[in-house]
Amino acid sequence: MKEKKLSPMMEHYIKVKEENPDKILFYRVGDFYEMFMDDARLASQELDLVLTGKSAGVEEKIPMCGIPYHAANSYIQRLVKKGYKVAICEQLSDPATSKGLVERGIIKVITPGTYMDEVMDAKSNNYMASISISSWNVCALFCELSTGELKYQILDRSLISLEKALLTMDTSEIVVPVTLDKRWLAALEEMDTITVSLQKKENLENEDVKLLHENDPEIVKNALAQLMAYLKETQKQHIDHFMPVTSMDAQSTLVLDYETKNHLDLITSHSSSTKSESLWTFMDRCQSAMGSRTLKQWIEMPLINAPKIEKRQRAILTLKNDFILRENLKEHLAYIYDMERLASRMAYGNASPRDVLQLVTTLEHAKPILELAQKIESYPEFKETPDCHSLYIEIQNAIVENPPLTLKEGGVFKEGYNVQLDELRNISSKGKNTILEIENKEKERTGIKSLKIGYNRVFGYYIEVRNGYLNDIKEEYGYYPKQTLANATRFVTSELKEKEDQIVHAQEEKNRLEQELFTKLLLRIKEDLFDLHSCAKALASIDVLVSLTQLAIDKGYVCPVFHPEMSVKVIEGKHPILEDRMKKKKFVSNNWIMDENNSIELITGPNMGGKSTYMRQNALIVIMAQMGSFVPCKSCELPIFDRIFTRIGASDDILTGKSTFMVEMMEANVALRYATKHSLILFDEIGRGTATYDGMALAQAMLEYIEEVIQAKTLFSTHYHELTEMENTHARVKNVHVDVKEKKGEIEFRYRMIEGKADKSYGIHVAKLAHLPKVVLERATQLLKDYENIDNTSSYQPSLFVMDPIQPEKSKLMDRLHELDIDSMSPREAMECLYELKQLADEIE
Ligand code: ADP
Ligand code: MG
């Protein structure tokens, strides 16, 4: 093969790529960002781009694909969402004027954690974590670039705690030290929703020390130093809009771990019964994205301090009783934009004139909101909250009412804001008149009526004279011919050129000045960043309080009462979401009563009887109560719980490939180890994943341990009827069961919890409801009778009938029929369905 050299540009490309192997390099060439080689192959697949080849000096063509630079944002967003990092390599010198190779360099790296464009989902957070490890602990420092939030959590030095913390915060990227243990690194890289980035150790810069408090531990400082170094490397600028770090202290919140949040569908919904509604989406009546995000935090971190909870309750009461106050607040809250993110964008320097307008609108309404909120007596801090009114006046005086989307379009500032700007605007707008004046003057001087002045990009202003009149142009007029057309000639004069220079110059000067003034305005806004953040926080809290009040009013919720005893008295409690969703049937409310001496409620009863619903609803009531919300019941007295543990549902953890039983035991283990007398434990049919005797033995052992050692309040549903005997031997165990009515072999569910144990399990009845083949049901009934008389072995009847084989077509037809939801069908769908059913029926001989 002939040795050939790569072109100089490709050589440069390869050098930059070698320095950034873990990023997709967007290499600016003219109006395009080009990707080459492996990046091109990857990007063409991920972005559905056409892969082409570029001859770059060598014989084979180099794989290449490109995107127009002005459309880059949407492509970057798609790649970053998939977890890639994108490095933007720009042309740093003007290709028109530079000799030789255009100078290029990386101006920014966009990563999943640093992505902060407007299109980001407004209601959710985008956290990036930086971790630092000491002999005993891991510090996970979470930051959100778009809001300037920094908070940390100190964890045990264990990979599992770290993984859970990352999942709980829905982290998109994690920055780790280059020295991180290989096993840990591999495990983190395995997590598909998280991008891992390595960072060399750096010292904390002096100006960032102010983000820490005196008593923040050393590992927090290390994690912060690492984060700041990483941000500087990727953003190519020092990030200075962070608020000081706060601690996510587990001591001050009701601890809900990752599994519990999932099992209870707090933030995202997993179960089909609630029609994909999570507690968050159900409760959210906030008008601003900041409010929705704050509500989410309140749900994820309920309080454990009674005065703090009561503070929120009292605010809701005030708002509930004062219709006018509530409605006035709502009216203003409708104008609140995402001030947290706006302020950060201003400070970061990538705000648009529209962003500034949104900030102005928000501030305009911030003042009346804060004034109204002074009536909420349990929140005296609203009186102290800065309303940033002087900043509002300043921006309002500067920006026009309807500024353009981008600065380039011009016309952002009001008349009278800047004398020089006004003058320049005058010149360029007068320019048009000046040109008209010249046109008239020339018409008169030459006597040519059809003479006119035009403009094009190549020659600028010109005087156009029809060729028939050329003789009228005298030498002394000073006309210089510029262009000859078929029927006319274009001229310029020195006067015309002079005016043109002035107009163009004024235009350029005006743009430059507007840019300068805008930058200054952003800097001015940045001065008030801290106040803007406190104001935003207060507005978000007010939004949440109004939203919780509206929920309480709409649904008729009551204010829970907390007491120091470990006893529970929830009267007529309901599952908030199911109650709301049930249209035809009415949701049956249930009491949950446990006195100080009760520790375990052992729940038995048939499948589909409402056991899981009852357990979940009680946990949701506890969470809602401790976040300060009103709750779905008639009255409610609760202790303050410190932690909720759940083992609900039989979902295999497909991601990590653990079997149901293993997952079940691991979750039980967490509860048994960490629960205290003040915790709430929900164990739903534990032990189901293994052989009957194993499962039952494990369940009983766990119950005994909870009863004797932990004494946490526990809701334990089980299908092992033998366990109900424990009530007789263990003082703190109480049996309850779901009420069902049996009529002529059919069962009717009542969904009501009543004291005592269930008399039988009704498994076959439920199977009947599921339309199992009749022969199977009959055989099961017969077998059951035999088991029940097991000591009288002679009565055991072997199956006398030959089992009717189940016809697959028939069961397909039956399945289709059962799953039909006729009410939701359009006439056309119904018709199509009828044809389909007919065909299925025809297949059966
Ligand atoms: P189990 O855990 O006993 O098998 P579930 O709690 O899963 O039963 O409830 C099964 C279904 O019964 C629910 O999806 C719901 O439709 C209905 N249900 C449960 N509890 C109630 C209730 N209190 N009122 C009305 N319907 C209920
Ligand atoms: Mg269940």
From TrEMBL:
GO terms for biological process, alphabetical: mismatch repair
GO cellular component: cytosol
SUPFAM superfamilies for this protein: DNA repair protein MutS, domain I (SSF55271), DNA repair protein MutS, domain II (SSF53150), DNA repair protein MutS, domain III (SSF48334), P-loop containing nucleoside triphosphate hydrolases (SSF52540)
Superkingdom, natural source: Bacteria
PROSITE patterns in alphabetical order: DNA_MISMATCH_REPAIR_2
Entry binding sites for ATP: 605-612
Keywords on record: ATP-binding, DNA damage, DNA repair, DNA-binding, Nucleotide-binding
SMART domains, per database record: MUTSac, MUTSd
Pfam families assigned: MutS_I (PF01624), MutS_III (PF05192), MutS_IV (PF05190), MutS_V (PF00488)
Domain DNA mismatch repair proteins mutS family: residue ranges: 679-695
GO molecular-function terms, A-Z: ATP binding; ATP-dependent DNA damage sensor activity; damaged DNA binding; mismatched DNA binding
NCBIfam families listed in its UniProt record: mutS1, PRK05399.1
Role, per record: This protein is involved in the repair of mismatches in DNA. It is possible that it carries out the mismatch recognition step. This protein has a weak ATPase activity.
Similarity section: Belongs to the DNA mismatch repair MutS family.
PANTHER family tied to this protein: DNA MISMATCH REPAIR PROTEIN MSH1, MITOCHONDRIAL, DNA MISMATCH REPAIR PROTEIN MUTS FAMILY MEMBER
Name of the protein in question: DNA mismatch repair protein MutS
Organism this protein belongs to: Floccifex porci
Designated gene of the protein: mutS
